[in-house]
């Protein structure tokens, strides 16, 4: 009997020790926060998704090296949607199965429109670096680090209105929500006395733009709210038809253009609305560029990555503030519990003081980012 009692006491003691170890691990901050993302890691838009994945991982490595969040480390769980909305449901389910606590949503807009509804149903927080559709942050769990399409259209129109032009050209993709959304908001905000020569294309005719170039050849300024691949095709085909001093002006979809073509082969100016200067050598932007290019090279250096880098640090900063307020977030909390804390913080006056894409960044009640936009010149006119 004594042996049995001793054995029982021994087992109880061991269980107590294991339980104590578990509590001690928790106190020491063992564990990790898992951040999900869905983006094009393969396919035609892979430069965007790869940039986001690289930059997010770089930020996470830096934060973890500095001790993480009160000892808790971060980990990125990245999934490939190939810029195909039909793959998002599977990616989202995979994120949940792998225990994500909050996410970067999607990299591009069409997949993001699928993601937002699913994440709303489960109350999973997302801060997207680059899905710019106006309806991306439709629900209270979604936020953007990039400018919304409507805001891009408005700011682009304000810029064009200031130029004193009487006529401009527009080249956009009518079957793409990103391109069509920006153009509609741009046109609505454009001065009524500016004549618009409007041209468009779709997936069905995205390789030969000779007809559109003929229509636009007399325009000295062409607004192109499109992604960089068709922009490169247009510029190559139009280089000897458009005026040498014409200006091609785009939005954040122009990122990646310099990697798609040699811009020195055309004479026209190429510029874009941006929140990131890829040539910066100072401040947070300069620091980010230096670290990113040393680690990953220049092929995927763009504002999508810079924005993702800021997303990670903005989330980290919000969590630190919550902890200081006595509302610490830990990995044993559910994604829904964490979402409630983060969305209250992001709509409650939280300011991300300085990032690679701007300073004193805040968010509206609608989840849209508030920061300065600038004109960034990719290539000066010859």
Description:
This protein is α/β, with parallel strands linked by helices. Helix 2 links the parallel strand 1 and strand 2. It has helices at 2-28, 46-65, 88-97, 109-122, 149-161, 177-189, 210-216, 228-238, 257-260, 283-296, 303-324, 335-346; strands at residues 32-39, 73-80, 102-106, 126-128, 142-144, 167-173, 195-201, 221-224, 247-250, 269-274, 352-355, 358-363, 369-370, 374-379. The chain starts with a helix and ends with a strand. It is elongated and about 65 Å long. It is built from 12 helices and 14 strands. Helix 2 (46-65) packs parallel to helix 11. The longest helix has 27 residues, at 2-28.
Throw out a few tags for this protein.
382 residues; alpha/beta; 3-stranded parallel beta sheet
- Physical arrangement of strands within the biggest beta sheet: 7-6-8-9-10-14
Secondary structure class reads alpha/beta
Gap from first CA to last CA: 97 Å
Total helical segments: 12
Note the beta-strand portion: 15-25%
Note the quaternary state here: single chain
Number of strands: 14
Low-confidence stretches: 1-29
Largest sheet: 6 strands, mixed
Overall residue-averaged pLDDT value: 91
Based on CA atoms alone, the radius of gyration comes out at 24 Å
The coarse overall form would be elongated
Work out the helicity level.
40-55%
Order of helices and strands: HEHEHEHEEHEHEHEHEHEHHHEEEE
Task: Summarize the structure in short.
This protein has 12 helices and 14 strands.
């Amino acid at each position: 009997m004594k042996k049995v009692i001793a054995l029982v006491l021994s087992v109880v003691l061991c269980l107590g020790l294991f339980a104590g170890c578990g509590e001690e691990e928790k106190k020491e901050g063992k564990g990790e926060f898992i951040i999900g993302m869905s983006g094009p890691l393969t396919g035609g838009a892979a430069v965007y998704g790869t940039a986001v994945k690289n930059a997010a991982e770089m930020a996470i490595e830096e934060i973890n090296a500095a001790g993480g969040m009160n000892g808790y480390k971060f980990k990125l769980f990245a999934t490939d949607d190939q810029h195909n909305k039909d793959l998002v449901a599977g990616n989202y389910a995979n994120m949940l199965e792998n225990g994500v606590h909050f996410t970067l949503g999607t990299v591009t807009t069409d997949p993001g429109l699928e993601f937002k509804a699913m994440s709303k149903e489960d109350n999973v927080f997302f801060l997207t670096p680059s899905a710019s559709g106006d309806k991306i942050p439709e629900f209270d769990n979604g936020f953007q680090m990039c400018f919304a399409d409507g805001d891009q259209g408005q700011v682009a129109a304000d810029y064009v209105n200031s130029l004193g032009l009487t006529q401009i050209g527009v080249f956009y993709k009518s079957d793409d929500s990103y391109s069509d959304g920006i153009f509609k908001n741009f046109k609505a905000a454009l001065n009524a006395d500016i004549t618009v020569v409007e041209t468009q294309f779709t997936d069905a005719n995205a390789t030969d733009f000779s007809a559109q170039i003929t229509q636009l050849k007399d325009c000295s300024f062409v607004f192109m709210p499109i992604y960089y691949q068709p922009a490169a095709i247009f510029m190559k085909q139009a280089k000897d038809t458009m005026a040498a001093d014409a200006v091609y002006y785009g939005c954040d979809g122009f990122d990646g253009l310099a990697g798609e073509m040699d811009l020195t082969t055309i004479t026209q100016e190429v510029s874009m609305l941006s929140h990131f200067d890829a040539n910066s050598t100072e401040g947070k932007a300069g620091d980010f560029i230096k670290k990113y290019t040393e680690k990953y090279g220049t092929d995927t250096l763009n504002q999508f990555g810079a924005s993702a880098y800021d997303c990670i640090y903005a989330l980290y900063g919000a969590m630190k503030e919550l902890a200081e307020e006595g509302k610490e977030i830990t990995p044993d909390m559910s994604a829904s519990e964490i979402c409630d804390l983060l969305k209250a913080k992001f709509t409650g006056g939280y300011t991300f003081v300085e990032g690679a894409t701007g300073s004193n960044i805040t968010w509206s009640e609608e989840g849209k980012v508030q920061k300065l936009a600038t004109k960034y010149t990719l290539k000066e006119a010859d």
